[in-house]
Amino acid sequence: MFQSLTYNKENPCANTHFIPVLLIMTSNAKEENYREGTPYHSMLERYRKTLNSYVGSTNVYICGNTVQVPDYSRFNWTLFDPEEKIKYNETHFPKALSEVRELGKIIISSPW
C-alpha cells in the first residue's frame, strides 16, 4: 500500500493500475471470532477497505484455529485443548487450502 500512498489530500493514491487482492487471515482464534459485529471482523474490514483503496478489489479469507507449534507439550498453554486444535487442523486445513487455491485461480484469471 505504501508505494501507492501520496500524502496528498486531493489524490491520496498514486496507483493507476489496480489489481485484485486475496487477504488470507490465518489465526489462532476460532473462525467464529471473526463474525460480523466482533472486533476481529471490524479489524479485517478496515484492512479490506484500505487495500480496496490503494491496491485493488479485496476479498478476505479466514482460516482460524490454526496450529502454532509442532509440539504443544513443550508449552504450558492452558487456554485451549492442543489435541482438539491438532485434530481440527488435520480435518479443516486441507479444505481451506483447496478453497484458497481456487480463489487464487479466480484472481489470476480475472481481467484486471
List keywords for this structure.
single chain, alpha+beta, two-stranded parallel ribbon, 2 helices
Question: Nutshell version of this structure?
Answer:
By secondary structure, the protein is an alpha+beta fold. Helix content is 39%, strand content 11%.
Question: Which helices and strands occur, and which strands form pairs?
Answer:
Blueprint: E1 21-26, H1 39-54, E2 58-63, H2 82-109
Parallel strand pairs: 1-2
The biggest beta sheet reads: 2 strands, parallel
Strand order of the largest sheet: 1-2
Q: Count the strands?
A: 2
**Would you tell me the overall average pLDDT?**
93
Helicity level: 25-40%
How many DSSP helices? 2
What class do helices, strands and sheet pairing give? alpha+beta
* Total number of domains: 1
Q: What is the CA-CA span between the terminal residues?
A: 18 Å
**What would the principal axes of the Cα set say about the shape?**
elongated
How large, in whole angstroms, is the Cα Rg? 18 Å
The amount of beta strand, in percent, is: 5-15%
- The stretches of 5 or more residues where confidence is low (pLDDT under 50) are none
Q: Which sequence of SSEs, written as H and E, runs from N to C?
A: EHEH
Give an overview of the whole structure.
- The protein has 112 residues and is of the alpha+beta class.
- The chain has helices spanning 39-54, 82-109, and strands spanning 21-26, 58-63.
- The chain has a two-stranded parallel ribbon.
- The longest helix is centred in the C-terminal third of the chain and has 28 residues, at 82-109.
